Amino acid sequence: MKFLRKCPSYILSNKSNKVLSNHTHKKICKISNAFTDDFINFLKEMAPTKVPVSLRQGKGYMQELENEGLSHHFQSFLVPGEYVSIEPATISSEFHNFILDEIENLLDLPREHLVGLRMQYNIFPLNSQYHTLTLIPHTDVARKNITPVAVNLNLTSNHTLRTAFYEYDPINRRKDLEAKKMILEGDSYIDKIIRMNPEYTDSEKILLEDWNKYEEICLEKGELSIYQGDYYHAPFLKPDSNSSIRLSIAIFLIYGDEIVSSVSRNKIERNLMMKNMKHIRGYKLIS
Ligand SMILES: [Fe+2]
Q1: Which of 73, 94, 135, 175 is the most buried (most CB within 10 A)?
Q2: Contact criterion met (CB below 8 Å) for 232 and 102
Q3: 126-182 pLDDT, tens digit each
Q4: What's the 131 CA to ligand 1 centre distance in angstroms?
Q5: What are the residue ranges spanned by the domains of the chain?
Q6: Complete DSSP assignment for 107-145
Q7: What interhelical angle do 177-185 and 188-196 show, nearest 10?
């Protein structure tokens, strides 16, 4: 195993191109050509070459060979495939500043209100069928006083990474707004979709009654998307004869409102250990 010393010096291409969704109330953004090829290759190189396959039920994907003997307990993560955490500090602050600036411009969420961040590689084989739960429209987190934001960066050559955005639009128009609120708050819509799709499937075959796909973001290698995680969305996945692996980076950010973010800031400021020891790495190579 090798240590990669550091990020390339030039990570921003300075010729990025931004496209916003046409949807009036939803701010969904796609950015192309933001990063240099060196940086995208560095991110690919950082990804592990071998990834342990999780034993959790409904790990998100199923390949042909696994077809027999699987029970269908739908109690899993929504993450399709395997994931590997990335320590954010291994990536130049220029990258984080770029992302935080774009979020501030697009969603009006100042970086001072950031209270949580998780960054990971999402990894799975393209020639698969997918767990119904991974294909259902969902929100990442929907809670009062916080706003979740998701960023996806495609690192796969010759593969388009697709994210679909949905709105609840019951076919039976007699259902009033109150009923709509109840069904979404109680998540009972999930049970209904699972009953309609009890087997592993894909985004073209899945039956999604009452849901209207109003937007789809398509990312080629090196392109990224930014959107609020409380918009209903799902990865758009279908079996691909390409037998390679899909690799992308997902970043989940949580922004607090005034109160939540000031409580979080105070906690950090009180922690003098962190303040004084931030330059210590924990190991030192003997040369
Ligand atoms: Fe999501």
Answers
A1: 135
A2: no
A3: 888 888 888 888 888 767 788 999 999 999 998 999 999 998 877 655 555 666 665
A4: 14
A5: 17-49+74-276
A6: H---GGGEEEEEEEEEEEESS-EE-HHHHS-B-S---TT
A7: 80
Both tokens of 53, joined, read 């396959």
By the 10 Å C-beta count (0-12 exposed, 13-18 middle, 19+ buried), 144 is classed as exposed
Strand order of the β-sheet with 17-20 is 17-20, 29-32, 224-228, 146-154, 245-256, 114-125, 82-85
Question: Looking at the predicted structure, is the pLDDT value of residue 248 above 70?
Answer: yes
- Classify domain 17-49+74-276 by CATH number: 2.60.120
Alpha helices for 127-279 (secondary structure H): 132-135, 177-185, 188-196, 258-270, 272-276
Query: What's the confidence (pLDDT) of residue 112?
Result: 92
Q: Which two tokens stand for residue 198?
A: 């009890």
- Cα-to-centroid distance, 236 and ligand 1 (Å): 11
Q: Which has more confidence, 201 or 261?
A: 201
Section 62-91 average pLDDT: 60
Q: How far is the CA of 232 from the centre of ligand 1 (A)?
A: 8
Residues pairing with 32 in the sheet = 17
Tell me, in angstroms, the distance from the centre of ligand 1 to residue 233's CA: 6
d(CA 160, CA 219): 5
Q: Is residue 212 over pLDDT 80?
A: yes
Beta-ladder partners of 227: 150
Q: DSSP letter at 53?
A: P
What is the rounded CA–CA span in Å between residue 281 and residue 29? 36
65, 45 Cβ separation under 8 angstroms: no
